[in-house]
Amino acid sequence: MATARRLRSRGWVAQGLLALVVTGAPVAAACAPPGGIARLAVVRPNDLPAAGGGRYLVDTGGGFILDRRGSAALLKFDGRREVWLLSTVRGPRGDVFFQNDVGQPLLRLTRLGGVTVFTRQRPLGAAARFVGPASTALASYPPPGALPDALVVAGSEASQAARRPVSFRAADVEPAAVAAIADAAVVTSEAIGDLAVSPGGPAILARLSQVELVRGRAAAASFHSGVISIAVAPQAGLTGRPSSARILQALGAGPSASPSP
Q1: Which of 66, 67, 101, 134 is the most buried if burial means most Cβ atoms within 10 Å?
Q2: 196 lies in a domain?
Q3: Is 165 found in the same domain as 115?
Q4: Among residues 110, 133, 156, which one ends one of the domains?
Q5: pTM of the model
Q6: Is 206 a residue whose pLDDT tops 90?
């Protein structure tokens, strides 16, 4: 009889351990989306690429490409043109957080393979699942094009979002800096679009009239007298271009404005 009880006890323990491994989600419960742990997707750690590009789908809709490069990573959301440069920070229980240039976490990877993405719509996180290698690698900058055309398009998009004229200017741009300046124009226009649909955003945009793109020693963004100045350091790659989150921060927007896939 005692032997039978021991066997049943071991069986219950084994079942409990199996349930923990299958659900895998308790470590991510603090950031679970409405609906609880059951909605969190769990991926085996061996399925996650240690380096290179991977394609992920979010359980609430949409997806993204994550290109891991050592201690950093590139991230691009579906339907967006901005490529985020993220740095890694170790969290409790072996979790790894990927954060942007203003310290906002955009992704979390648990040691059990769970993936959580944080966005404006889902500030507490939504589960994502790895579906395979990305079909294309993320480039630091888009292919070089005609900068005047890029400035016109960015100005048109920003003006439409702000519902008032917003011009984009870039003077004396060297050929080697064209791609970086054009990319900064795209990111700035997307940031303005995000701000337009954020609480308090229209009031901020009512004071914006011009975007000035300049070459600098390091990435920077400042807002004064209706002009937001974006400094870009092309030689530094994506580190030399402020993210949309940093641009929104310079405009005086709160955390609810960024990021937004």
Answers
A1: 66
A2: yes
A3: no
A4: 133
A5: 0.77
A6: yes
- 143 phi, psi to nearest 5 deg: -60, 140
CA atoms within 13 A on the CB side of 101: 22
Task: Strands of 189-244 (E only): list them.
Answer: 210-215, 220-224, 227-232
| Long-range pairs, 9-12, Cβ under 8 A, ≥24 | none
Q: Check if the beta carbon of residue 211 is closer than 8 Å to that of residue 230.
A: yes
Q: Are residues 84 and 49 in the same domain?
A: yes
3-state class (DSSP) for residue 89: strand
Taking the CB of residue 242, how many other CB atoms lie within 10 A of it?
26
Between 244-251 and 178-196, two packed helices, what is the crossing angle to 10 degrees? 60
pLDDT per position as a tens digit, 138-165: 776 666 567 899 999 999 999 999 999 9
Buried b (16+ CB within 10 A) or exposed e, 149-168: ebbeebbebbbebbeeebeb
